[in-house]
Amino acid sequence: MVSFSLLANKANLVSSRYFPYTGLLGLTPINIDGVVKSKLDADAKPLPAISIQVSVKCYEHIVGKVGNIASNVVVDHTQTLWTKPDGVEYDLVSDLELPFHITLPADVGGFSTLSLVEYKCVWRIEAVITHLPITGVGSRILRHFELPFIRHSLPPPPPPPMFPSLLVTIPDASVPPIRCAVELPNYHIGPLDMAPVILRIYPSVDALVVKAASMVIERRLILHHPSRSNNSSESQSQASSSTLALTEPSSAATSTSDLATLTAHPSPAPYSVDTLDKCVVAPIVSTESTGAFTYDQNGSWTKTLTVQWPPLPSSTRWAVGETINSVLGSVRFFVRIKVAAYLPSGSVSFDLPEQEISIVTTNDAQRQSAMTKYEEQLASTSRRQHRSRSKSKSPGLRRQRSNESRPSEAARTHPSSPLPKPPAAKKSSRRPHTSAGPRDQKPFPPDDRLLPREKTASSSSLTTRGQIVHPDGSTRPSTGIACSDPSRFPIDPPLSSPFRPVQTTQYGGNVWDDQLRRHAERKSRRGSDFFTSLFRRKASPPESRPRTANVQGVLS
Question: pLDDT tens for residues 181-192?
């Protein structure tokens, strides 16, 4: 068999459940790069395959207790990376490496990633190899990763309310209906946005006094189950029938033509659906009025109720969701207000007609921040590509220019001499100063200033002291003044120095050496005389030795 894998270009997918991508859903194009690999297993048997495809899809699922009850493909973007030759039933696949690049347009359909208890919306990238049917395996091998897409675009603005003021009948009260008005925000509400709701109540009798009000925004998940004659596979075939095929030029990497299919949002009735199968209601945020209502000059009780929309939860919690209207279900948000008032007959409470509010998954600040990060990422990628192109452009010419700009070894000379520099001598490794090895016990060389300077005929010849000798025999002074005759510059000791000029004797030596020799001879004679006298004293009899005085008698 063949092992089949889906990999990203520059990411480690071993510990990650998400596939990397660049772009913002609904604002910018989304780019996805990766590679599909196939490799022979230990049995070294190739796979009789028909095609290899990679797809980006948006699914919606109705979730039951044992899994997905129904599924629908909302968006399908597919590329064919490899296919069998024409005229044959299959072709053998062994070791392949097929890179791919998928671009989703900015106006692509689909919803944000959503996970509720009964309903889910997910984006996935899938790699599928279709092969001949194999017992126990089937006819397809699929590898997939999730894509955590969040929609950043805004839907069209909500329409203004059809009836700005409504008549409300108070139950169990002998008063005529009252007129009320609820002003909702005329914009889409996102995470952490403030949602002010203005409540105006026009009493029909002067005796009506509004006491308090409470508001709750609830989410209603309406699920539509398909009839028994249809299933999710028919839903997918219905979605694929409305796709638009875009034939791209042949790619050298895959050696086949790539087929990209983009599925638009399917029509809202691919099934025969029931009118309403199930409705799940969940309160999201709520608030109560604080303080008394204001009675204005128009004769209305007015109060503003404000709530803050909760932030986008993490992947470990159930999502809040956004306004969705799809095939398998819809997610809608409604504002419900309850009012408490006083009448001469007692306290009464009544509910105002509910009104729908539009919810999105990102607010203005988040969209602006995401767009800024996306632009910075594009600029960084552009700079990196520019540097890589400049490095890879004509390396031979760049090397030639660098060689021309680099000076030759013969032209590298000392600033004070036109002679070239010699090759640097290799430094010999020395032991640390704490070592007591034989190398550190080597005596220091004698100082030339203390040696006699003999003016002979050979003193005018060139010397290597103070010069660097090249292998070709040329020399140059390393530091100081270049001199060929050291006798021309005698070094006289200072007047305060304890050393004096050394005088040469007639035997070719010097007075200093003669004095040292005579001093050593005197020391040697004194030592020999001492040991001789000591030996004679020990050898003489005790009677001949001189008697010493009694120390105690002397002291007494």
Answer: 899 998 999 999
pLDDT in tens, 19-36: 999 999 999 999 999 999
Angle at CA of residue 222, ends 352 and 63, nearest 5°: 145
Catalogue the E-assigned strands of 255-351.
Answer: 257-263, 278-288, 294-295, 301-308, 324-325, 329-343, 346-351
User: Smallest Cα–Cα separation from 127: which of 177, 81, 64?
Assistant: 81
> Looking at residues 514-523, what average pLDDT do you find?
81
Question: How far apart are the C-alpha atoms of 119 and 73, rounded to whole Å?
Answer: 14
Query: Which CATH class for the 166-224+274-359 domain?
Result: mainly beta
In the chain, residues under CATH classification 2.60.40.640 are 2-153+227-263, 166-224+274-359
Q: Could you tell me where the beta strands, DSSP code E, fall in 289-420?
A: 294-295, 301-308, 324-325, 329-343, 346-351, 355-357
Q: How far apart are CA 9 and CA 20, in angstroms?
A: 9
Average pLDDT for residues 488-512, to the nearest whole number?
51
Is the pLDDT at 406 greater than 60? The verdict is no
325 φ/ψ sector (left φ>0, alpha ψ -120 to 50, else beta): beta
For residue 207, name the pLDDT band (cuts at 50, 70, 90). confident
Q: Which residues pair with 278 in a beta bridge?
A: 223
Mean pLDDT of 53-63: 96
The tokens for 317 are 């919690």
Tokens of 475: 């020399």
From the CB of residue 165, how many other CB atoms can be counted at a distance below 10 Å?
A: 13
Task: Check whether 63 has a pLDDT greater than 60.
Answer: yes
Q: Maximum CA pair distance of the chain?
A: 162
Q: Where are the beta strands (DSSP E) in 105-152?
A: 114-115, 119-134, 138-146
- Which tops the pLDDT comparison, 532 or 201? 201
Nearest to 203, CA basis, from 6, 358, 343: 343
> 2-153+227-263: which CATH architecture?
Sandwich (2.60)
Question: Which two tokens mark 203?
Answer: 């009493």
Q: CB-side exposure of 82: number of CA atoms within 13 Å?
A: 25
Residue-level pLDDT at 170: 77
Instruction: Give the whole-angstrom CA distance, residue 233 versus residue 73.
Output: 10
Locus of tokens 């060389």? 445
The helix/strand/coil state of 373 is helix
Integer angstrom CA distances of residue 490 from 405, 452, 453, 485, 486 = 46, 11, 8, 10, 7
Q: Which residues contact 84 (CB under 8 A, 6 or more apart)?
A: 49, 50, 51, 90, 91
Q: Report the percent of the chain where pLDDT is more than 90.
A: 37
pLDDT band at 426 (very low <50, low <70, confident <90, very high): very low
